[in-house]
Structures are given as structure tokens and as C-alpha cells.
Amino acid sequence: MRRSRDVSELVAGARGGDPRAVARLITLVENGDDLVPQIAAALAPHTGNAQVIGLTGSPGVGKSTTTTELVRVLRGQGHRVGVLAVDPSSPFTGGAILGDRVRMQQHATDTGVYIRSMSSRGHLGGLAAATPQAVRVLEGAGCDVVLVETVGVGQAEVEVASLADTTVVLLAPGMGDAIQAVKAGILEIADVFVVNKADRDGVDATYHDIQGMIGLGERGPGEWRPQVVRAIASRGEGIDEVVAAIDKHRGWLVERGELRRRREARAAAEIEAIALGRLRERIGSLRAGTALPKLAAEVAAGTSDPFTAADTLLRDMG
Ligand SMILES: Nc1nc2c(ncn2[C@@H]2O[C@H](COP(=O)(O)OP(=O)(O)O)[C@@H](O)[C@H]2O)c(=O)[nH]1
Ligand SMILES: [Mg+2]
Q: Who contacts 21 (Cβ-Cβ below 8 Å, separation ≥6)?
């Protein structure tokens, strides 16, 4: 089929560093296209090693600024870097900016950086399903580090934690963030805290608040203690320290066998979500057939019970 050939051509293009192929693949993934399983299969041999770093925090705290600065430092270290901004409002500069929304900007392109903002566009499973696939596309395109920025509202922080090897949570002075962090369960997911906007009043209070909160947590011997780093992202200050804290965490992950454990847990969650989605589809299509209506009639008439009927339905689905 023409479409299958498209997938191998696109994957070959992405592997060869063609930003348009990378952009197209991410768009397919973002839209939950029927080709996504084929894309995932074609990319699989080239994935599994990229370091995934999640950045989250309240809007305006400086995630995009910090991401841009991290790209600068990581590029300086010779990494090829991918950026996924799961936040359509994120402005970025530099690098190959993938996607029609921002491709119009005439930036000098650094082929060692791919930047893409993603939106959910309402397909089933949304960004939670699309983001790990987009990470794979970037990895297939040769990125050995992928930064994922998510806007810190509601469940987003928790999602980025389930995607990333290392989760960086940004705070800023005067936002009451330290207390909110505890409420939102951020304390459990953060591997590194960045107290950004350290040029502002109240930075010491925020720094000590968060250190205090971390100190209250119970930790077994050898368990990771979240690092706290001050930064002024808008001036590029403290970014080397952020990178050092991320590296330290990565060292700990590797040493403890935790990197593999986290990745396998992530893969398990992904498989489960896909399998549940497929199951839901099949059950949906059963509704149109005869099996479900027949069982429903039996349950309604009292000749069967819903548990027996559900077991029958699952068995017959094979
Ligand atoms: N004063 C100050 N402003 C900053 C700092 N870092 C970022 N900003 C500014 O804060 C605003 C929001 O930054 P942005 O990175 O877009 O935040 P995001 O919404 O978390 O991605 C921008 O105007 C930045 O220039 C900082 O360290 N100090
Ligand atoms: Mg942003």
C-alpha cells in the first residue's frame, strides 16, 4: 500500500535528519492517525536510549525560558536535543522548529535541535497517548536527549512524571508555590526543583520552604533526595547547576537500576492503555452486533447476571 511505503520513507527521512519528515511523523502521532502502530514499529529498533527530561510548573514560572537555556547547555555538550512543548503558548527560538504554526519564523536552523509544540486536538487518549510516541519520533531522528515541557495544571505534572526519567519542577518566589507543590503532589514527582526568578524578592523564603518540605519527607537509605537549584533563566544563570542536578539524578537512576525499572513501568502503562483502548473499541463494535444485545436481554430478564454475561462477552471476544 502507498501509505505503508510512506511510513518507511518518512522514518528513513527522519533518521536522515529531514525536519519535514520528523514534523510529519509527529503530526500523524498527534492526530492519532491509523498509521501510528506502523510508525511505532518502524521506530522501535532506534529507540529506548534517549534521556527524557520533563519540565513542569505553573504558567509563567519560566519553563520555556529554562528549556531554551537547557538546550543551549546540552548542545554545548554535544547532545542532539528534541523539545516537545505540550503547551501551545510556548515561544521558542533557535533550532529546527517543527510544525506549521511556528515554521513561518525564519530562524537560523540548528539541525541538532528539534522543537515542536503539541496540542491534543481532541483525539482519543489525547496527549497522554501521543507524547510517548512523539518522544520516539525525536529519538528515531537522532535526539539523545528529549525535553518535555508541560503546563503545570491539574494532572499534567503527574503525566510528565510518568513520561520522564527525570522530572524538573519549577517554582518562583512569591507564588505560594511551595505550599501548592505539596497540595498538588508535586513533592512526590519532583527529582529536581528549580527556584527560578532568583532575581526577585522572596527567593530565599521559597528556597527554604521547599527545602523544609523535602526535609519532612521520609526517605530510606540510598533513596533520592530532590535537589533544589536557584536560577535566573532569563539571564542563563544557574542553568549549568540545573544540568548538573539532572546528571546527578541520572547517575542515581542508573546506579540503582531505577532507570530500567521506570522505563519498564512506563512501557507497561503504555501497553495497558493501548490494550484497554482496543478492548473498548471491540466492545463498542459488539454493541452493533448480536452478542451484546442477546446477553443484555438475558440479564434484563433475570435469566443471567451481569457478571456472568461480562465473562461470556470477554471469552467470546477471544
Ligand atoms: N525576572 C525573571 N523573569 C524571568 C525569568 N525566567 C523567565 N522569566 C520571564 O518570565 C516570563 C514567562 O517565562 P516562560 O519561560 O514563558 O514561562 P512558562 O509559561 O513557564 O513557559 C517571560 O517573560 C520570561 O522572560 C527569571 O529568571 N527572572
Ligand atoms: Mg512555556
A: 9, 10, 11, 12, 13, 14, 141
The span from the CA of 43 to the CA of 97, in Å, is 21
Q: Which residues surround the ion ligand 2 when the cut-off is CB under 5 Å?
A: 63-64, 90
CA of 90 to the centre of ligand 2 (A): 4
Check: CB of residue 117 under 8 Å from CB of residue 183.
no
What separation, in Å, do the N-terminal and C-terminal C-alpha atoms of the chain show?
29
Name the strand (E) or helix (H) holding 96: strand 96-98
Q: Does pLDDT of 70 surpass 90?
A: yes
Phi-psi region at 304: left, alpha or beta (left = phi > 0; alpha = psi -120 to 50): beta
Domains assigned to the chain: 1-46 (no CATH), 48-256 (3.40.50.300), 268-317 (no CATH)
- Could you tell me the pTM of the whole model? 0.87
Contacts (Cβ under 8 Å, ≥6 apart) of 246: 53, 166, 168, 191, 192
> Is the pLDDT score of 103 beyond 60?
no
Contact present, 54 and 160 (Cβ < 8 Å):
yes
Contacts of 115 (CB under 8 A, 6+ apart): 82, 83, 85, 92, 94, 95, 96, 97, 98, 102
CB of 150 shorter than 6 A to ligand 1: no
What is the distance between the alpha carbons of residues 243 and 256, in angstroms, rounded to a whole number? 20
